[in-house]
Amino acid sequence: MKIILKIDGGIGKSVAATAVCKAIKAQYPDCKLIVITNYPEVFDGNKKVYEVLRHNELNYFWRNHIKDQHDTRFFFQEPYLATDFIRRRGHLIKVWCEINDIKYNGELPELFLTHKEITSFGVNLKQSNKPIMVIQTNGGLPNQADKYSWPRDLPLAAAQKVVNALAPHYNIFHIRRQDQLPLQGTIPATADFRQLAVLIALSQKRLLIDSFAQHVAAALNRPSTVCWIANVPSQFGYETHTNIIANPPTIEPELRGAVLAMYNTNGPEKEFPYNNEEEIFDVELILAALGHETANAVAAAPKQRLTGPAPAIKNRKKIK
Fold first, then answer.
1. Where are the domains of the chain?
2. d(CA 187, CA 37)
3. Which terminus of the chain is more solvent-facing, meaning fewer CB atoms within 10 Å of its CB: N or C?
4. Global pTM?
């Protein structure tokens, strides 16, 4: 039997889909699992996947996978459009499994890096004797008109304060594209996906947002500090991480354009529910989560919700 899993969306969604693949193979261990994605590099070394196809390279698909193959199953449903996902009744991976009648047992994403990848690229990361820290401040598609999306991205001023506090102790690599805003005192990390995964694997601290890097960190069992604004960790995050939830809104937003979620991830200014960006996160709490406590951290903590285990806890936990 063949099972064909179609993945739309960004690279982070493909990383999350590796957990769906794991659940599929647990239920159908003898199936040939075929994945359709725009990011085949995510599945390199994944022996659960029989074949990976690109969306734009489906030549002879009907002949090879449908014609006279009556036991082939097609998992083409979009989990973002499922009722339970829209109602926030479960994690993306759980909902994705359930809409395809796959039993979900708390599977987590997984990536497979070779020793050669780690050693070859790892050599290039050595800047000094200081350990490595990774920060990702921005997500989204390339060449966006607005370089900052407030529902998803970490405010640049807050990120810069974190960098200023930790730069004396770490070589800080900033995961970003050339078209995204830079941080002073950081090393740009603009490598390909596999190299960025090695960077995350070799780092000692990680400050991330709801984008591909936090999925990669979970797949590599690298507990990280992840900041959330519009989306919530119960749908996209992992208990492996320390998840910091944005402060509650301070003003009433204009939600005329909200459809399936309260906020649009492209960040319309009229939906901005704060007086200014400084109200979104307490930098002291972020530093505390990163293990860099300051005198004000205890006072800042009650203002903001923090979920997940401390970064020092290494045990992987199932998604509920």
1. 2-98, 123-307
2. 30
3. C
4. 0.90
